[in-house]
Design goal:
Number of strands: 16
Largest sheet: 7 strands, mixed
CATH topology of the largest domain: Quinone Oxidoreductase, Chain A, domain 1
Bound molecules: NADP nicotinamide-adenine-dinucleotide phosphate
Number of helices: 9
CATH architecture of the largest domain: Alpha-Beta Complex
Length: about 325
């Protein structure tokens, strides 16, 4: 038996229960991984509330990302060995546990130079930043990008990666205290979008032309001003809805405001097979090993205290990556 954070019903942080669960031996294609750290992601909050339908049934264990050590290996798995350090991100939850079974095809080996802690703090968020800046909208040196929730987990990876690519970054944050964090991690400009206009700043910085791309994980609270911050044929990349679901998009608005592009991407469609997963994680490990991008771990909680981490992330109190120590 191992300990895990399970939900029996959807709801607030109080539905997160610390329970004992059985972990069977790995079946064909599976690994048994003893977790060292689980990465908390905002999507866990949405899954907990029942607003993101990925759980096949309840009760279920939350968590989309973890690092750990391979303890045993199922039939047909040839690319991992017992004792190897691995990290994974999977839309199929279950990472809030001391150990679990995971399909070997979603796990990758952690390079020697990267700690388990940094791997769990960076894999899902960093691979998200990777596909957003390189493949969703392949942004180029000299362009200007607007990044919402820039002090968040994905946000700080975006700021650093964009700086590495030579892009000017305007980052938005929900409180003045977060401004320094983004300015010291790649952003050129910081706006508190609860009290200042990111649209005005975007137009000032670009001398009225507008930014090339908006990387938006916030959704309805920022949609309208984001569209107005774009240059003609600019890209609105809405990859999250931290402020709630977006209303249906009006295609005529996209047309009249500059032949704009709108996309709502998911990482799984940028990691369609093992080759794409490895290419994406290798790009992430490369920028981390070169120290161009690092995991900013703002807070850590014991796995048993996952409810406290959920309270803090929903209250917008967290910075960068949040870890659960398994
Ligand atoms: N599509 C994909 O492939 C993909 C992959 C990973 C993550 N995501 C999405 O990306 C977003 C960021 O994920 P993350 O794990 O790195 O989380 P996070 O950014 O660390 O946390 C969410 C942040 O959103 C901001 N926010 C704005 N309005 C909010 C509201 N009403 N309630 C709570 N927070 C609000 C807060 O920052 P401020 O206080 O500074 O505004 C908060 O810190 C999430 O929406 C997530 O679902 C998408």
């Amino acid at each position: 038996m191992v300990k895990a954070i399970q939900i029996n019903e959807f709801g607030g942080p109080e539905v997160l229960q610390w329970v004992e669960v059985d972990v069977p031996s790995p079946g064909p294609g599976q690994l048994l991984v003893r977790h060292t750290f689980s990465g908390l992601n905002f999507i866990d909050v949405q899954v907990r509330k029942g607003s993101y339908p990925v759980l096949p049934q309840l009760p279920a264990i939350l968590g989309a990302e973890a690092s750990g050590i391979v303890e045993s290996i199922g039939e047909g798995v040839n690319n991992f060995s017992v004792g190897q350090r691995v990290v994974y991100a999977s839309t199929y939850p279950g990472a809030y546990s001391e150990s679990r079974l995971i399909n070997a095809d979603v796990a990758v080996s952690i390079p020697e130079s990267i700690s388990d802690e940094d791997a769990a703090a960076s894999f899902l968020k960093g691979c998200t930043a990777e596909y957003l800046v390189n493949r969703c909208y392949p942004v180029k040196s000299g362009e200007v990008a607007l990044v919402h929730a820039a002090a968040g987990g994905v946000g700080l990876f975006l700021c650093q990666w964009l700086k590495e690519l030579g892009v000017t970054v305007i980052g938005t944050v929900g409180s003045d205290e977060k401004k320094d964090e983004i300015l010291s991690n790649g952003a050129n400009f910081a706006v508190n979008y609860r009290s200042e206009s990111f649209k005005e700043l975007s137009l000032d910085v670009t001398e009225g032309r507008g930014v090339s791309v908006v990387y938006d994980s916030v959704g309805p609270d920022v949609y309208s001003d984001s569209i107005d911050s774009l240059r003609p044929r600019g890209y609105m990349v809405n990859f999250g809805n931290s402020s709630g679901p977006l209303e249906p998009i009006d295609p005529v608005e996209l047309n009249v405001k500059g032949s704009l592009f709108f996309t709502k991407p998911s990482m799984r469609f940028y990691q369609l097979d093992r080759k794409q997963l490895e290419e994406s994680s290798n790009r992430l490990f490369d920028v981390m090993e070169r120290k161009a991008v690092r995991a900013v771990i703002g807070q850590k909680y014991a796995l048993s205290e996952a409810h406290k981490a959920h309270i803090d992330v929903e209250a917008r109190r967290t910075i960068g990556s949040t870890l659960l120590v398994c």
